[in-house]
Amino acid sequence: MKSRNASENRDIVEDSVLMTLIGNGEDLAPVVRHSFEMGKPENLLHQLKNAAKRKEVEIEELCKLHYEEFIVAVDELRGVLADAEELKGELASDNFKLQEIANALLSRLEDLLESYSIKKNITKAVKMSRICAEVLDLCIKCNKHVSEGQFYPALKAIDQMEKNYKNNIPIKALRNLIEKRVPIIKNYIEKKVCGETNEWLVHIRSTSKDIGQKAIGFASSARQRIEDLLARQKKAEEESSLGLGDFTYTLDVEEINENSVLEINLVPLYRAYYIHKCLEVGNQFREYYHKNRMLQLNSDLQVSSAQHFLGSYQSYLAQIAGYFIVEDRVLRTAGDLLMANQVEAMWETSVAKLTLTLEKQFSQMDTASDLLLVKDYVTLFGATLRQYGYDVGPILDSLTNSWDRYHELLLAEYRVKIKNDIVNDDCKQMVIKESEYQSNVLSLHLQTSDIMPAFPYVAPFSSMVPDCCRIIISFINDSVNYLSYGGQTKFFDFARKYLDKLLTDVLNEVILSTVQSDSIDVSQAMQIAANISFLERACDYFLLTAARKCGIPTRIIAKPQNTLKAKVVFKASRDEAYRALLDLVNKQLTEYLSLMENVNWIIDDVAQHKGDYMNTVVIYIDSVLSIAQKILPLDVIYKIGNGALEYINNSFMDTLLSDNVKRFTANAVMGINNDLKILEQFVDEKFHSTGLSEVYREGSFRGCLLEVRQLINLLLSSQPENFMNPVIRTKNYNMLDYKKVGIVCEKYKDSPDGLFGSLSNRGANQSDRKKSLDVLKKKLKELN
User: Fold this and answer.
1) Number of helical H runs and strand E runs in the chain
2) CA-to-CA distance for 411 and 409, rounded, in angstroms?
3) Residue 222 CB contacts under 8 Å (≥ 6 apart), including other chains
4) Is the pTM of this model over 0.85?
5) Structure confidence by residue, pLDDT tens digits, 744-768
């Protein structure tokens, strides 16, 4: 019983699950597969049948529920069918009437469509006619512009035709004609424009020189204004430093001169380039322009062999300057016709050729003034093109390379001037009036004192000194003028070098050659020596002038290491002049002392020896020292006096030692002693009168005669043999030499050789002195 109930309950559950699956519309395949796998398809079939029965019951119940409503709906449907039949009849009647009316309208519609077709054709024809008319109008305009030379409007008309009508011209004949004629017109325009360009190229080349000259003229005016401004500023500073006058400050406003604007007509070039761009051959025109301008440049850079460079350098440089001014204007205003790298390449080529040309021409010039003229114009040329952005450094460097050449020529020219000035100098002290003192002394810093002298002023130098100073100042100006150009500022060292060369290699050499010549006398040599001293002092002024011209502060030049080498050279030359002066003095003394040959060395009486030669010597030395006292410093006077007296001393000694004097007596020695006393007295007085005694307190001129004085004293002494006593010799005869004393003593005779000479000189003193002298001779012989 229980198992049957369980089986029924399971069937109920399975039926309910199956009904749920069917109700949900799910797939029953898994259930069917499961039933067959379990081997119980009958149960599934039974369940399906039960499910079908349940659905049929549900359908019957539903049909019963809606039957009445269905009957009512069927009745209503029958009513609708009757109304539809009635409506169909009415629709047929209306369709018939509509067909009758539509036939009449259809005929009218066909007429309207035909009219529309005619209108469309007429509109198309009108449009085609209008296009042809517009094209023909553009053709007429193009022909008119071409005939009038207005190529840009003509090209504009052609461009309009090509852009707007080329593919829209309805008439084939007209289209073919335009396609054929347009290239011909373009080619004609291109040729005409090229012709105009060639004419412009010829014109711009012919006007480039004028353009360059004007631009260089503007640069020259600007430089002059700057120089005038600096000069006024310098003058104001000098007056301010001296505290002179009242000063008012003004503002200098530079007025722009309308004429300073360069007028360059580039309109034909602009038009030609634009037309070529319109023709789409702009690159070709750029190449054409650059090629032709390069040919012009190469031609401009050639120096004419038909004319000397000095006669053509201005036009030559102006032509090149004008060329690059035009190219700069083209570069800045003509769009991309000219590129910056092209201009730079042209400039570099020109700089290389121009530099070689200038260096070659500089080397061939034979006057410094020519070099200066060309240099000045080259600097203006550089200043002009620097304003347009060109690098002129290499060109200015070529001027630097010509410095030595210029100064070589300049030194040669100034050598002639200095030589003429020194040769024509009278070597006499310059007498200066008050009106001449400023120009000849103060302005050249040659004053020896700050106190104004009495006039007329007798200067210690000759006219050669101020003349040479002015020549040297002129050389400094010429040198600095050449060294200073463009942006050059550090050229003072070169100016000093060339100034040193002038002073040492020119002025000093000319002076030395004059000093060493045989044509000058003592007074001239003395004056030249004095002049050298002033030139040596003037070196500081020369250096200061050069520094001022170069813009170097005075405080830098004031340093000791900045002095000129010429000062040392002049000092050496001055010493050489002193030696030459002393040689001339000694030469003259030789002539006067040669009168000693007339002396009777074996004279019987002292009174017969008058010593005329010594009077001449004294007068000559007095004149020499008197002149020297006026123009030479005391140390030089001291040297001249010492040198002359030493020469006299040596001359006396040489005479006594020479073979010309075979024998001399005591009377002759006494005569020389008298002459020597006269000389000693004179030199003592001169030593004091010249002021040397105040400077050389320990010295005197007498010391230069010490050797001959000791020899005379020895020969006249009562006991000559004391010479061999070391103590006495050191005290009284320290300047004498054994050998010389021996030679002189051999020649010395205590008495003359006259008939009564031995009788007249007998005496005890004479005999003792002779014995002593014989002893001395014997000892000197043994010693020698």
Assistant:
1) 28, 4
2) 5
3) 383
4) no
5) 888 887 655 443 344 444 444 567 7
